[in-house]
Write the structure tokens for this entry.
Amino acid sequence: MQAIQIMSALAQDTRLKVYQLLVERLPAGMTAGEIADSVKMSRNGMSPHFAILSAAGLVSAVKEGRQVIYKAEIKAVEELAAFLGKAVQRAHEETLDSLDW
């Protein structure tokens, strides 16, 4: 898991919106044009965002004819959620252990 890469990718407003859109459209996905229109950006302006989301394992792309369909990938987010959940659980356990009963 690449926690920093995942969190960094989602820390940018446009990329977070794109990921949220794609999660809502699972399993079908969306074309680059549909995504660009939804976030009010040009298709060319979306390219760096798609590259960052893809590198973080958050988005996959499949070419269908003349279009590219982007789909949300949830495995990376599931792994991040599990990692953060364990950290929170451990913090709670440490807090409980430090209490005098």
